[in-house]
Write a structure and sequence with these properties.
This protein has 276 residues and is mainly alpha-helical. It has helices at 6-9, 15-22, 41-62, 66-77, 79-111, 116-131, 136-149, 154-165, 168-183, 187-236, 242-246, 248-272; strands at residues 3-4, 31-32. α6 packs antiparallel against α7 and α7 (136-149) runs antiparallel to α8. Mean pLDDT is 80; it is low at 1-30.
């Protein structure tokens, strides 16, 4: 279930029509689940180098030992794995914002009296102007429009997107859309109301993210202060920490300090990780 392709999801009667349309949608290209993030070679090298540099700085600050650096280096080289989670979370945040704009644009077209097919086509053009033709949400709405033109149920296409994206709001929107079609109610009003609720929720999330952005910057600055203090004292008063690196008790104390520092960094990150 790691990948989703047009061929597996098309009905038997619609495969010939689908194969024609796939030519303009890069035939054979399967869309990955957005919850999976793959680092490029450049990103592996960049974040691996950053992790190695931090390992070297920590080994010098707390131990002044090449052996300590050799022990910490494997942990530093694992930093790209930690960074991958942050990048995936940021990508999902951007996709969520784009999805909010997408359903608002779709709702505006439906409210203006356009059919679902024309509304999706118009949404693709608007999102292409807003975010670019290669943006994630533009590609997704392009696939939705193509699927509707091939007589695929729109609720199934939305459910596919909700499952692959991992965005709860997208999955909820697909369920509301399917329920509205089954009940035969005012589809446009229901979609507009649901889009408004999702918009308000995502706006709250963005307000929280904006408020915590400055705190995250402060956290990064605070994380570097202990290293700066130790290095400053070491430069201005050579030999001040000599006992901390030349005795067993000193190394034990520095190890405890390192553990407390790591715990403080993890706690600060957990506090700032606010979910709505």
């Amino acid at each position: 279930m790691g990948r989703w392709s047009w061929k597996r999801s098309m009905n038997m009667t619609g495969r010939k029509a689908a194969s024609k349309r796939q030519g303009s949608l890069k035939a054979g290209k399967s869309l990955e689940r957005y919850e999976i993030y793959r680092l490029s070679v450049r990103e592996w090298a960049l974040y691996g180098a950053q992790g190695a540099a931090v390992s070297g700085l920590a080994a010098y600050t707390f131990y002044r030992s090449w052996i300590a650096f050799a022990v910490m280096l494997p942990l530093g080289l694992c930093y790209p794995l930690y960074k991958k989670k942050e990048l995936k979370k940021e990508r999902l945040r951007r996709l969520t914002i784009q999805f909010k704009e997408g359903i608002l644009v779709l709702s505006s077209f439906l409210s203006a009296g356009y059919s679902l097919e024309n509304s999706l086509a118009g949404s693709v053009e608007e999102l292409g102007i807003l975010y670019g033709e290669k943006a994630m949400i533009t590609e997704e709405f392009r696939l939705l429009a193509a699927g509707v033109r091939m007589n695929r149920p729109a609720e199934l296409l939305l459910a596919d997107f909700g499952e692959r994206s991992g965005i709860a709001d997208a999955d909820n929107f697909a369920q509301v859309f399917a329920a509205a079609k089954r009940s035969g109610g005012e589809l446009v009003d229901i979609i507009s109301h649901t889009a408004g609720i999702i918009r308000d929720k995502i706006q709250v999330q963005e307000e929280i993210h904006t408020m915590t952005a400055s705190r995250m910057l402060e956290q990064k600055i605070m994380n570097s202060i202990p290293f700066g203090i130790v290095l400053y004292i070491d430069v201005t008063s050579p030999g001040f920490f000599r006992m901390m690196y030349g005795s067993l008790a000193g190394r034990a104390i520095m190890t405890v300090c390192l553990g407390m520092y790591v715990a403080a960094v993890l706690l600060a990150g957990h506090i700032l990780d606010i979910e709505v």
